[in-house]
Amino acid sequence: MHNYSLRYSDDGIGAAKRVEFEAFDAARALFIAHREPSRRAAELWCEDRKLCTIRRIGEESDFWEVGPAF
User: What is the pLDDT of residue 56?
Assistant: First the structure.
């Protein structure tokens, strides 16, 4: 198991927050992030390494946009 976190900034859609969780791989992050409003971007981290940014596209969509880690 690895320690992951989703880091949200104060973006006008929601307040800044960090959601930490343990998982075997990063895919679990999509299930957790799905609870947030769509179009809300988060940085996905594993331990102290930023993996990528994620954002759900569309109001009631299961499609995700995955961006670079920089």
Answer: 87
In what helix (H) or strand (E) does residue 2 lie, and over which residues does it extend?
strand 2-8
Q: How many domains is the chain partitioned into structurally?
A: 1
Closest listed residue to residue 30, CA positions, set 63, 67, 8, 69? 63
In this prediction, the residues of the chain whose per-residue pLDDT falls under 50 are: none
Q: How far apart are the first and last CA of the chain?
A: 25
Longest dimension (CA), the chain: 33
Q: Cα 2 from chain centroid?
A: 15
Range of the domain at 67: 21-70
Considering the domain boundaries, does residue 10 fall inside one?
Answer: no
Whether 49 is covered by a domain: the verdict is yes
